[in-house]
Design brief:
elongated; Arc Repressor Mutant, subunit A; 73% helix; homotetramer; Tetracycline Repressor, domain 2; 223 residues; DNA-binding; mainly alpha
Chain lengths: 223, 223, 223, 223
DNA sequence: AATGAATGAGATTTCATTCAT
DNA sequence: GATGAATGAAATCTCATTCAT
């Protein structure tokens, strides 16, 4: 409840009154979204009532409708907000790092860190969104497609560099990598595994090394 | 009321009518469960109405309540029925096959074949059940735990045989393997990938080889 | 459950097979009615389900419909059966006894004894039927009217004999007497009072003497 | 949600809107309760549907749930509201009047007047609540116990003053008195007796005098 | 006679959404 | 902007009753 959100500085030079009002509005909106993350993570999208979210946010439930069209839009906003962060991260990783292992390590690192910081968010993304074709049909976030594409690029680069075998479709390998990450997270989410830092670290290492070794070209003079 | 009736032998001599009735009852139950699989897969558990299931099964919705306590129990029955098949398969694989690769291949084969035969069932299991901690908390199917355990045994055997590196927890590797399989299936379920046989075959090969290579001990001449 | 009902001897001289069948039928019917009394007393008419009655009687619920048109008819049968006993008792009391006090004593005695023997029956009659105008409207048992009439006669006889003051309507006094009896019983039914024999005896005495003294003519040559 | 709100004084200066809203809310609640009294009296608790109450009150049925948890809580509120009036009356009678006859006369007067003003309320209290042990078990209104206690005190005072014979338990006599009043009312409720004022007056007199005479100590020159 | 599968009307209850204040 | 009263569609579930066996 009431987590202290760091307020971003806004573009200076506007009417102070307006800005203050905008600020308050943005705060309220964020307050509601934060509450929604927790409630959705706790009860699931369907079972979560708007009034639950409002109560968690400490506002009247009518206000939720002031900021969002309906319940689904609340969920969409959450996805938008979070996936755009993931996509940005992936894009920057592609730019900043070289080599398959370094890149995947950076990505897995980031994901696991997010989990440490806000497990509810990950719970929600994994449980409600992860793969739901039904939601996907209604929602179809281009962000998600973009993240797949970036990953695919990384793997294709690996194939070009001889780090990844070329006899398998890069898109398919992308699937497998995401599967490991996702299910790895899910194991924590569903309490299949203990939620402690050591475990998280081991998980990171296992995912990266298993995948990198697993997709390495082999055979002739190979490994 | 009167469901899951254990058939006892009754006074011989006039039991035919009774038995026929019981048979019909069992048929109707199965008819309802089959319909439920399709409806759940199509709309998801929450969005599926009992009346949808009844309509799909071609019975009055009251009959669903005649055989099942409520909607959740319908879902549970489906899980029970299907997971027990998976568990049996895994156990038999452990008995019949030797060697990590052979065993995992057999398992992945089976899973993908089930998908070919009854994609709705897999859709349902993957989407609704796959990992939902919320459902899991209420339901806690021992069958699921059992399947994890069997897989873990297989990996531990691999460690003992030197096929799997020993510096990583077998349970953790189990997670990763299941993640690949599950997300591999999910890619079809969510239409992220084309549902054709060639693709399924390539997926099978990719999963097994990536995982087996990925978890192989390295070192000797290796990495 | 399964209280041992004393089977009445039937008119001798009929076809034995027929009689035996009739007997069995009557037994089943009585079995169902006895069960119904207990269930209605326990849960109330509305909350009692036909299946509860059938279960209590140890028969299939379809059979209830073989013997009774519907749930309401089951209740009616119970009333019929019991009130006719009460009416007969009152009529015989009017014949056998002389004097207001003797007659009322006999009546109260009987009522309280019934309570000792079958509290459920009294519970049911008092709670579901006692005064329910709504049921009364649908049911309108002539038996009930008859019992009022007999009592009224007894009071009118008392007026004629100078035991009861004549300045008050006999029907009204009937109401008051029945009110005492009914509420007296109700106090046990609702556990407002301890259900022990001494209390029952004191209740009997109090009802009769309070009423008899209360309605005695007074005044001039009176007290 | 937000029912039975205790009105707190809020920051003075802009509370008018809020207060007006609260007033409206209280009005609506009462409107619903009044409607419920009529519907329950007409059809009985079980047969009354929430939608009947809503229709009678002229509101959407959802609103009933906005103010009350469920149907039973509606009934409870009615009991609470009405019995507290009865209890207060009895307490004030005990204070204001002296002598058994005066006190009981005042009580019976009040009861019969309530009946004249709102027969439905009395119908409901008498028919649904009067004694129902089943409801009583769930509800157990302390108000009802309190009214018994006050009456008992009045009778004990009568015993102390020599107006009531001491050889009978005061609680038992309380039962009888209430029985007369209740059944007296019931006779009107169930249309066993004509609902006219003259009859009501005669009933009043008959109840009080029968009871007072009936419980008077006898002996001296008596019987 | 006896059974219980099958039906479906109908009741309760929930909750997203609108809207007056 | 903020509130929460008001609405009513829709979903779950119950159970009296019918009927084939």
């Amino acid at each position: 409840m009431g987590r202290a959100v760091v307020r971003a500085q806004k573009s200076p030079g506007r009417s102070a009154g307006k800005d203050a009002a905008d600020d308050r509005a943005r705060d309220k909106q964020r307050q509601i979204l934060d509450a929604a993350v927790r409630v959705f993570a706790r009860k699931g999208f369907h079972a979560a009532r708007i009034s639950d979210i409002a109560k968690e946010a400490g506002v009247a439930y009518g206000l939720v409708y002031h900021y969002f069209t309906n319940k689904e839009e609340v969920l969409n906003s959450i996805f938008q907000r979070n996936w755009s962060v993931v996509v940005k991260m992936m894009e920057s990783v592609e730019q900043q790092h070289r080599g398959l292992k370094a890149r995947l390590t950076a990505i897995v690192d980031f994901m696991m860190n997010v989990y440490k910081i806000s497990p509810e968010t990950v719970d929600l993304l994994v449980l409600e969104f992860g793969r739901s074709s039904r939601l996907a049909q209604t929602v179809r976030h281009p962000q998600v497609d973009r993240s797949w594409t970036v990953l695919q690029h990384i793997l294709e680069a690996g194939q070009a560099d001889g780090e990844v075998r070329t006899d398998t479709d890069a898109r398919l390998l992308t699937t497998l990598f995401l599967g490991m990450v996702e299910t790895g997270l899910a194991a924590f989410v569903t309490r299949m595994m203990q939620r402690d830092d050591a475990m998280l670290e081991e998980m990171k290492r296992a995912i990266v090394s298993t995948f990198v070794e697993g997709v390495a070209p082999r055979g002739n003079g190979g490994r």
